[in-house]
Amino acid sequence: MGPPTLISALPPEIIIHTSQNLHNRDDLLNFSYTCRYLYDLLSPQVYHEPVTTLDDFSLGEIHRAASFVQTILRRPNLARSVQHLRIKLDRSDLRGDVACTLHPDLEYDHTLIGDAVKATAVSIQERKDWEIDIAAGNCDAWLALLFPVLSNLKTLVFIFSSKTRFITRMLERAIYGQRPFVTQNPLSSLNEVTALWYIDISVYDDNNNIIGYPSSEKTLDVTLFAKLPALQTLRGRQLTLPVHGPDQISHQLQPDSSPITTLSISSSISEDGILGLIKACKTVKYLRYTEYGDRNGFHADSFRRSLPLTKESLEELWIDYGDHTYPYLDAENNWLGSFHDFSRLRKLHIRLANLFSWRPSTASHARTTPKQRLTSLLPPAIETLCITECMGEQGQALVSQLEDLISNKQTYVSRLSQLEIYIDFMIEPDTRDHLKSLCEEEQVDFAIRRWWDPTDMKYPSRDDGYILQDTFWCFDR
To answer: Where does the Leucine-rich repeat domain start and stop, copy by copy (predicted)?
Structure first.
């Protein structure tokens, strides 16, 4: 059907500008489906971000994934239009070791997909394995075919696990410039990556009964994203960050080689204080790390060594547990060091135990007396200070430190405007009122929160870190 006369008479620029003001995605899709003329004109805009958080379709449905991949492979102009890609594989696709069998009702262009696999695979065996997974309806195998052709990708959000083989393989090859990315790397424009590791706790049968535990397979080292030339933001959740040993020198990141300015790693585990990532970045401005809290413990000493590398550039620091987990080991409460020399640091979120160096415990006194004065630990540029896990006698000791800090605000922290503490004890009313009065006089917004109070819905708990939202899918109908 040809375009209506009035539509065809309008300059394309006017139509595109009008469509950009259709903030409801369904309205945009309905508008583009009015006629072939509008569909061809507006399809690049639709595919600019083929998945939005407001869409009703998820990537876990193989028919939608197959339709989208084939559309992208057939239409290079749409491939060039994709700038924001969100990949979330369905849990059923990630769980369990099941033999690949033909998908009963999956129809696709075997020539188109076969040619794509042939151009992408590096060996005959890999090609055969890939084609088997394609025929079995493995979304991982299908979606991996996208990366060689998405030449303008700017942001990537994806969930992966030990069962995600093809996508992680493609990403690693793209980062290292291996086939099929020898002549051009579509990830060279990528400036934001969010990766979520889906934890395979156990393997289930069809009746949801545990039948075993997943094998430990090679997973993607997300620190490799720091090798990308345009990457500004790296976010991750539920990751175990590797410690590179002497036998992995070829994979280590070169110091000051990455343009990353924002690191946000939540509910994760790092033994070296994410030292490899921090050393690789030229200028880290925003650093957020929340520990998963496993029995190996939070490596406070490692962070005390790595954080000073950011003191010339860091503006915001959040370092805490990702939930209400208590430390397993005394070393987790070790001092993270002074932040006085962090000349640009404006926002600090930290556990009380890690903020101070505490005097050793004795037979009659617990480890409740800080060695330092809080005024000597904070940077002059600090604007927001949040202290969590203020418990027992250590928490009581903090109150007098805060009174001292606010009383001497103009001398030490003249820019301080917001102060929050998370406590598990009752502050004497007179002391609380005095502290609030001091803050009011110095124009500091002061708040006392219950540490880990699930009923406090007005304010977020300390676990308000990055939560990966469900991603959704749109395909070429």
So the answer is: 68-434
